[in-house]
Design goal:
heterodimer; A: 270 residues; mainly alpha; two-stranded antiparallel sheet; 13 helices; B: 336 residues; 6-stranded mixed β-sheet; 12 helices; 13 strands
Chain lengths: 270, 336
């Protein structure tokens, strides 16, 4: 009981410290919101222009596509950056030594921080992009709380899968000590195969197959398809099972990878 | 039982050697040439509870590498480390609970957060009892003068403030073993003094074991009764600070200033010429064999001396001498 109490206390303070860190930069916070507004407007105009010539693309009509795109925009910043950059920075600058010296499981600590930031980002996005969609572009978002709940569960699973992937990816920094290239590669793959840019059904079949075997779709395409109504709720069981399987495999791999590569550590300086 | 037990500890780094220029960089991409660098070699020492040990050596001697292996960040290539019975690498979390670490050149605190927020978080992570935390916080606030900076984010602190903040964060969970890697680097005399007093006081009241690396011999003189000297990755001296002082304390130096340029000078036995420039000569002599006045007389017979000063040896010059003449370690006797 005592142990649980302490654990919760640690989590609570980690959550609060991450919130404070995000809010420490007022300017950053507001300018991000500004950028989201602009990008959302650009996306919607782009897709409206595409649909002006035809009624459907890959079997989706304009309303369906727009709903999907808007929802993907809400999710996008949650997955866009990951923390490969941060991971590499810790290794380069040697800050990883302080991280490793804390008496808490390193991965657990970063995961809590990551979820907190993801959640803040989600709320921010829902308010900004959601109200744009509703009031400016008159795109209706789902109202069924059950759909939202299913979406959130699937999103949580998806973000956790991506977290483990990023963890494995970040471990490469132990060997390369260079992460900018890694980050760019991750960004481009993610853009195409996660379903952030366009619904995956619009991709050529070969690319769709690749997307299926990569973890990225789990974090964007899968939850967003639930929320946009493309995936019926009756499929939830198999979707969650699939996501759990992904998570199990990625989690094991991430633990193995970290335990293996941490031996490689060379803390710079001193 | 020793608190810290280091046996046959060694660390070899493998780095990629690149030839100069773009060609070299491309070559290294396809066929990397590795070079092995031995940072620490066959290190052995034991440290008992409550000791403050100075761990010294020139830059690149392997001090920080050793500390990193003791804390569990770095995996040793050979040998073993045990801290309070834990293997710091395999039992990192268990080990972390017992220890505190200050790296003088990097911060463990959250850059953007006020100090008090960081301290609260550290206390939570280390599961410090809230009432005990309150007690320690008010004590530290007093001795480290934290009141004025508790609400300041770390990024806007001065170097001295930052180090006081680091110390508070390191000691707030009452660690049994503390590693201090250059804790006074770049600090002014006042802050240095305060930090030394804090460490000394904490060691005496808590019987904390402290391992301290520093280039500031003032730290060593005021805090450590035992020193371990490491050179090129190997231990060259391990023993009481006094032994070094007594052995080398028998040497003194005299500096002569002359009116005429010095051509050459014949020194009496048991003297050694340290520095010679146009108008100045520095001589080191063994006071057990020859007196200062005998040296002065011998020199003044040969040179037109305007002024001279007699210098008592301080630890700094002793260590400098040791660093420059590795064979001199043998003179101390207790060679590790």
């Amino acid at each position: 009981m005592d142990k649980l109490y302490y654990r919760l206390r640690i989590y609570r303070s980690m959550v609060s410290i991450n919130i404070k860190e995000v809010l420490a930069y007022n300017f950053w916070f507001w300018s991000q919101i500004g950028a989201h507004v602009l990008l959302t407007i650009a996306y919607i105009s782009f897709w409206k222009a595409l649909y002006s010539e035809r009624d459907s693309i890959a079997g989706l009509d304009m309303q369906q596509t727009l709903t999907y795109i808007i929802l993907a925009r809400i999710v996008m910043p949650l997955v866009q950056w990951g923390y490969t950059q941060e991971f590499g920075y810790w290794i380069r600058e040697g800050t990883i030594s302080s991280e490793l010296l804390r008496p808490v499981d390193f991965q657990e600590r970063i995961y809590i921080g990551h979820l907190t930031r993801t959640f803040i980002s989600l709320v921010q996005q829902l308010v900004v992009v959601g109200s744009l969609a509703l009031f400016v572009f008159k795109i209706s978002l789902p109202t069924d709380p059950l759909v939202w709940l299913s979406f959130l569960i699937s999103l949580l699973l998806g973000c956790s899968i991506l977290f483990c992937f990023d963890w494995i990816f970040g471990c490469i920094a132990f060997y390369s000590t260079e992460v900018w290239g890694l980050q760019v590669v991750r960004g481009s793959i993610l853009l195409l195969f996660s379903g952030v840019l366009l619904p995956l059904t619009m991709l050529p079949t070969e690319l769709q197959t690749i997307a299926k075997w990569l973890p990225f779709a789990q974090s964007v395409s899968v939850p967003v398809s639930i929320l946009s109504g493309m995936t019926p709720l009756s499929n939830l069981g198999s979707i969650w099972l699939q996501q759990l399987a992904w998570l199990g495999v990625m989690f094991m791999l991430s633990r193995l990878m970290f335990n293996f590569s941490v031996r490689k550590i060379t803390v710079q300086g001193g | 039982m020793p608190i810290i037990d280091v046996r046959n500890l060694g660390k070899t780094y493998r780095t990629i050697e690149k030839e100069n220029g773009v060609k070299g960089a491309v070559k290294a991409l396809f066929r990397p040439q590795y070079r092995e660098k031995v940072a620490v070699h066959d290190l052995n020492f034991q440290i008992e509870a409550g000791e403050i040990v100075g761990y010294i050596g020139v830059n690149g001697a392997g001090k920080s590498t050793t500390i990193k292996m003791l804390t569990g960040i770095l995996y040793p290539t050979t040998g073993s480390v045990s801290v309070l019975g834990h293997d710091p690498q395999r039992e990192r979390v268990a080990n972390a609970r017992n220890i505190g670490v200050v790296f003088g050149q990097r911060s463990q605190l959250w850059w953007d957060l006020a100090l008090i927020e960081s301290l609260n978080l550290v206390a939570n992570i280390y599961e410090v009892e809230p009432s005990r935390y309150k007690q320690l916080l008010s004590h530290f606030s007093e001795v480290l003068e934290l009141d004025e900076i508790l609400k300041t984010p770390i990024r806007s602190m001065s170097l001295g403030q930052k180090m006081r903040a680091e110390l508070a964060a390191t000691f707030i969970h009452e660690p049994k073993v503390v590693y201090l890697d250059e804790p006074t680097i770049g600090l002014d005399v006042m802050v240095k003094q305060r930090i030394r007093e804090f460490i000394k006081d904490y060691n005496q009241t808590h019987n904390t074991t402290v391992m301290l690396t520093t280039h500031d011999l003032g730290d060593i003189e005021q805090l450590c009764s035992r020193v371990i000297i490491i050179d090129a990755g190997s231990k060259v001296y391990d023993g009481p600070l006094n032994a070094i002082k007594q052995q080398f304390g028998k040497f003194r130096t005299i500096t002569f200033e002359t009116n005429q340029p010095i051509a050459s000078v014949n020194l009496p036995p048991a003297c050694e010429q340290l520095n010679l420039s146009e108008f100045s000569l520095e001589v080191r002599f063994d006071r057990s064999q020859i007196s200062a006045s005998q040296v002065a007389t011998a020199v003044m017979q040969q040179l037109d001396v305007a002024d001279f000063t007699l210098n008592e040896p301080d630890l700094e010059s002793i260590i400098k001498h040791l660093y420059q003449n590795p064979t001199a370690y043998n003179e101390v006797g207790t060679r590790g």
